[in-house]
Write a structure and sequence with these properties.
about 100 residues, alpha+beta, Thiol Ester Dehydrase, Chain A, four-stranded antiparallel beta sheet, elongated
Length: about 100
């Protein structure tokens, strides 16, 4: 919604979703994917890092951001995923999350 607090402070005259919030959404989607694995039952996930992040289009109030995360590597307690966030089938954000 356009009146959500993050739109009011980011660019007050031009509401756009802050990139850091979209990265956080990707990280949380990745954490859900990893924590859904039986071996991670009862554990919690922490955001460890981000690589190769690209913002390809603005996300504005009313847009539906769809997020997919492909887990590409798991070594011990650390997982790495490729995240893609789209609006209407068009890339909005892509990144690698740890």
């Amino acid at each position: 919604k356009e009146d959500d607090f993050w739109f009011k402070g980011h660019f007050p005259q031009y509401p756009v979703t802050p990139g850091v919030l979209m990265v956080e959404m990707c990280a949380q989607a990745g954490a859900v994917a990893l924590l859904a694995l039986p071996e991670n039952k009862g554990k919690i996930g922490f955001f460890g890092g981000i690589n190769d992040c690209k913002f390809r289009q603005q996300v504005v109030p009313g847009d539906t951001l769809e997020i997919e995360v492909e887990i590409i590597k798991v070594k011990g307690p650390i997982g790495v995923g490729k995240a893609l966030a789209t609006v209407g089938g068009k890339k909005a954000v892509s990144c690698e999350i740890t």
